[in-house]
Amino acid sequence: KKVTKTTSSSYYNNRYLLLAGSYLIEDNAQVMVNKLKKMGYPDAEIVVFDMSQYHSVCAGRFSNLSGARQESSSLKRKGVDSYVHTKQ
User: pTM (2 decimals)?
Assistant: First the structure.
C-alpha cells in the first residue's frame, strides 16, 4: 500500500487524468487500483490532490483530451464509472 509519486517529465506533460473513483479509506482505493491493473491498466495509481482528504484512483494519464475520453468510454463499457479530470 503506497501512494505513487512520479517525478518524470511525462507525468507533468499528461494534463488529463482518467479517474475511476475517490475513497476516504486508502485500502478501498487500493482495491480499485488492483482491479484496474487486472483489467489491463498497468499504470493505475492512487493520487491525493492538494487540500483533499480523498484517495482518488487514476486509471491513466493522457496528453490529449480525446484519448482520455475514449478510454473513459471503454472503462464505462466494462462497468467502471470514470471521468476525465483536467489538471490545473
Answer: 0.82
